[in-house]
Structure formats: C-alpha cells, structure tokens
Amino acid sequence: MLHALYFTKTGSASSWSVSYDNRYVQSETLKIEQGRQKPCFLPAIEGDSAAIIVAYILNYLRFGKVNKNITNTNVFEHAGRVYAVAESHQPQEICIQNLETGNTWDIGGEWDRPFTAHPKVAPGSGELVIFGSDAKKPFLVVGVVSDDGTKLKHKVDLKLNRSTLCHDIGVTLKYNIIIDIPLTIDIGRLTTGGQLIEFEKEGYARIGIMPRYGDAESVMWFDVEPFCMFHLINCFEEGDEVVVQGLRSADSVIPGPRLNKQDILPERSELKKDGKAMKQGINEKLFSRLFEWRLNLRTKTVSGEYLTGTECSLEFPMINNHYTGVRHSYGYAQIVDSLTRSAGSSEKVLPKYGGFAKLCLEERENTETSAEDLIKMEIHRLSEDEFCSGASFVQRVGGSHEDDGWIISFVHNERTNTSQVHIIDTQKFEGAPVAKITLPQRVPYGFHGTFVHNNIHGHVNTRSEKKLDSLKFIY
Known about the structure:
Elements: E1 2-9, E2 16-23, H1 28-36, H2 49-63, E3 74-78, E4 81-85, E5 92-94, E6 101-104, E7 120-121, E8 128-133, E9 140-145, E10 152-157, E11 170-171, E12 175-180, E13 183-185, H3 187-190, E14 197-199, E15 205-211, E16 220-224, E17 228-238, E18 241-249, H4 261-264, E19 289-296, E20 301-306, E21 314-318, E22 330-341, E23 349-364, E24 375-381, E25 386-395, E26 405-413, E27 418-425, E28 435-438, E29 450-452, E30 470-474
Antiparallel strand pairs: 1-2, 1-30, 3-4, 4-5, 5-6, 7-8, 8-9, 9-10, 11-12, 12-15, 13-14, 15-16, 17-18, 18-19, 19-20, 21-22, 22-23, 23-24, 25-26, 26-27, 27-28, 29-30
Keywords: Dioxygenase, Iron, Metal-binding, Oxidoreductase, Transit peptide
Protein name: Carotenoid 9,10(9',10')-cleavage dioxygenase 1
Cofactor: Fe(2+)
C-alpha cells in the first residue's frame, strides 16, 4: 500500500495545509486476488525446498505466474512521472494526485524483465540507469533510459554465471557500478534440498566498473573480500579511482533458517544519550556499516575500509540526490534499534529503526582508542517506543549547502499506537524535529520513501496532465 502526505499552499508563502491518503497499488496479481476475494498465491521465496517447488508449480498452473507482484519496495520519479516498484516486476505508474495506479512501465515494450527498485539518474545527462536481475538466464541485464523516459537507449546482458541478489546499482559521470556478491538465488539448489536464497560464505565477490554504454566484455571487474550489501550510498570518480560507498556486512543480513534473533543483535541495541550503542554480545559480522572501496582503473588494484564503527547498524541510506554520482560530503541512514518477530512466524525476525545517523564524510572522529579512521557521525534519537521507516532527504529550495534541508520520515509510537511524520533539520540534526504531524491512522512499517516537488504532473494512462501546486511525501 502507498501512503502519501500532501503539503499544499493555502495562501501566504508560509501557510500550508497537510492531508494524508493511502491506496493499494493495483498490480495484476492483486486484481486476481481481489476478484476471488481472498489471497491466492502460495509463498514461493523462503521455507522448505519441496514446498517452494510445489508453490512454483501451482502458482504457474493457476495464474501463469510464479510469484505475486508486491510492488512494495520503493517509489521513484523520472521525467515528470512517479512509479512504485519491487525488483521482481516492472514499475507501476502512480498518479500522485490521487494515488491511482496507471500502466506498467515497460519503456515502450522494450523492457520485458524485472526492474531494480533502485534506478539511478546519471549525473550530467539525466538518463536513468536501470538493471534487472533474474533467477534464470540472463541473470543480470543493464539498461539506460533516455532523460525524457520515452526510449531505452541501451540494453546489455552482462553474462554473469550466477544469479546474485543484486539490489542496487551505482553511477558516476562515466560509469555504471555493478555489485556481484555471493548472496545467490539458485532454483537448482532447491532440487537438492537447499534454500532458494543463500549466502555462500566460500563464494566470491566483485565490483564491476562498466562504461555507461558498455557491454559484458567492457566491464572491469575487481575481486574483493566476500560481503553482503543491499544499498549503496554513492559512487564517484576521483583521479584514477572510482570510489564506491555502501552499507556492508561481513555476513548475510537476511535471517534465514540458520539464523535466529539472538544471532543478529540483542532484543534491543540500546542507544545511550550520546547516541552510542551499548554492546551486548552483538554479532558484529551482521552489522551493516559504511564501507568505502577505492578501485584504481590504472593499476587495477582495490583498497577498502570501514568508515563507521560497530556502535550502530545502519540501513536505508540516503543523500542529497543532486550529488548522485559525484563527490559528496554527507549521507544519512536509519539506525537499527531493535527486532520484532514477523506476524505468523516464531522464527523470522525483522529490524526496527529507532533513529537516524548523519554521516559527515569529510570529518574524522578523534578516537585514540580505535585503529580505524572513522568518520564523524551525528545521531538523532527517536523517543522510547518510536520507530521510523521510509525516510527521505529533502533539499531546501535555494539552499546553498549540500546538507541544507530536512529528513522527513514516517514514525510510529508502539506505546500510544500513534503514527506521525517527523521533519528534522539536517543542519541541526541532533535537535528536536522542526515539526511532528500526527496522522489519522497507523502507517505500518515499510521500506523506501520519496519526496516529490510541485514540478511533477499527475499522469495516469492517457489522461491530460494537471500540475499540482503542492509537495508530496510518498512511501
């Protein structure tokens, strides 16, 4: 389900009204289930291998599809249009005026495969760099969409020899950054009793530097120590080097059948008043920490280091999007604060996020006790029993500094069962929010959100365009 908060001018420049709306994304598979008035698709991702195989077969025989299109991961904007997406299917266009679902975006029929939840706008050109990963060959295909969103300008199979759970892609001025990690999807593994998704600790990991319009042979691969990562923060060129920054863990952060709640972190990773976490036997291999790789294109060597310590596990990073693909000074992330068991499962555990971190990439901590050269990190801590999701950075219009703006996020208080939207001044990051907006109902925890300015039009199917004099926060 999409949740949207609308900020609309009501007269004077400083007067705004706020309204809330939500609506299900009307995917093809949701319409099937609505027509039958009940859930129909069998779960076919995790669990007993034989059960997954049976679910595959039954789903395909009944509906012609193996999995449900959930469209629940991200909302993004390109060429004046807004899309909801999950990486198992193509995006669905969304009318931001009323959250009505429009057509599936297959780029004029040219894109017939899954579509990443994290496309990137290339600096300079405004083109959209995309990819689609699949459990069957071709495992990874990269595409470049025109800046006006009407044409697929480039499409290439990278000819990987395995299906890797690649969730993100990076861009620089000249290159696409490909992440190939040993978190793999293997249908064949199911037939021998294994898991569909598994972290292969003895497998290989590498990072690829691909010219914007390159092919499989043009990718320069750099072997790195095996790791797990879902989200990049940014990538950029610096002399002979390409710098890649992401939230890396040494082991799989997906809780599987061999991981339980205590393996990841304690019931609550308590933050003290100074924002530092109190260690309680935490498995640091499963912490997502900011890591920076430097890939030298001339010497073909790679170096890397952690830029944050083990006091906080970070996820769902964001930056000022005007700095995507170029050198930047700041990043932001949600802080893992505790875990909860998912509904209907005594084994599966999910993280909850009790605050935000501001990553000051150009400033270093003066820590004599640490051998690592760590960056400065500011902490904005939510109140007790409050947890956030869907955070987005919003640049101040006319702002002169990279960090001149706000973090806006949905926040739920589990004690009062109240949902709010918090707005945090990123230049006064550790202070109180500049606004807290109480919502008329609970907003469940989710993944990524986006903030849409008033230069976006409300499109659905073949409707005429209508420009909206408002700002929208959607997740």
